[in-house]
Amino acid sequence: MLNDEQIKKLADASKLDTVKLKEAISKEEEVSIEIPEVQTFTPEELETYVNNNLEEAKTKSYGEGKTAGLEMFVKNQKEQLGLEFEGKSGEDLVKALQKKFSQTESEQVNELQSDKTNLQQTVQQKDQQITQLQQQLQQRNLNEQIENMIPDGYAMNKRQIRILFSADHSIEQNEDGKMIVKKNGSIMKDNMANVMEVQDVINGFMETSGIPKAGTPSGGKAGRGGDDSGGGESGLETITDRQSFEDYCTKNKIHPTSTEAVAIVEKLPETVQSKVLQS
């Protein structure tokens, strides 16, 4: 008869209830008990079974981990690069990147072309502004030089005389930087065909202009070269250059070299004055 320890071992090995197995063994008549299917291994067979399952588990875990890691990488790149595409594979990511960088390159080229055009236009505008400022500065310097050459002691101020002088004369610099005077587009020369000095031209103008000396009654006609009839200052906005100024004077019966004409020119913007005074 089996002792309790052996019965327990047998029950554990066959997955049976120890009490039921003990009762069945103690009975003299035949009894039937339900025995579950149990797979048994020898120590060698168990070792082989365990090793095989471990290898399979490693392979499966590596594959699953690799796939999960790749999907996580694709997801992160999708979010960081702002990509829009379906799928989680590396191939899906590569296709999306190729499409994005193809579009981005084209957009960048267009943007750079646009920036280049805008920059060129800005540079041109700045160059024009610089040129205009340089011309204005040169003209102001030239005006100051002319006014400094005008003798003192006349009824008109030097600015008015300079404007009156510039109505028929223009002063330029030649290649040597020397100032020359032109009248009606031609360089002024003396009887010996020598180019006249600016100071000599201004002195001659002052002698023949009819501008009275300070304190001398002018009768309102000094420098006019005509009578004092007519006149008016409406419509100054129509004056934009030399021709429109002369048209304005003709319409209003004003001599273009009179003091009244000078007063009109003084009321014009400097940019228009320079055009009006061009000979």
Q: What keyword list fits this structure?
A:
single chain, 3 domains, 279 residues, mainly alpha, three-stranded antiparallel beta sheet, rod-shaped
Give the % helix. Answer: 55-70%
Question: Going across the major beta sheet, what is the strand order?
Answer: 1-2-3
Task: Report strand %.
Answer: under 5%
Kindly provide the radius of gyration, computed on alpha-carbon positions and rounded to a whole number of angstroms.
Answer: 55 Å
Number of strands: 3
Query: Which spans have pLDDT < 50 for at least 5 consecutive residues?
Result: 218-232
Largest beta-sheet characterization: 3 strands, antiparallel
Task: Report the principal-axis shape.
Answer: rod-shaped
Structural classification: mainly alpha
| Count of individual domains | 3
Order of helices and strands: HHHHHEEEHHHH
Straight-line distance between termini: 146 Å
Q: Tell me the number of helical segments per DSSP (H or I, 4 or more residues long).
A: 9
Overall average residue pLDDT: 76
Q: Can you tell me about this structure?
A:
By secondary structure, the chain is mainly α. The chain folds into 3 domains: 4-80, no CATH class; 87-149; 150-276, no CATH class. It is built from 9 helices and 3 strands. It has helices at 4-14, 18-26, 43-80, 90-149, 158-166, 198-208, 242-251, 259-266, 270-276, and strands at residues 169-173, 179-183, 186-187. The chain has a 3-stranded antiparallel β-sheet, with no helix packed on it. A hairpin with a 5-residue loop joins strand 1 (169-173) and strand 2 (179-183). The longest helix is centred in the middle third of the chain and has 60 residues, at 90-149.
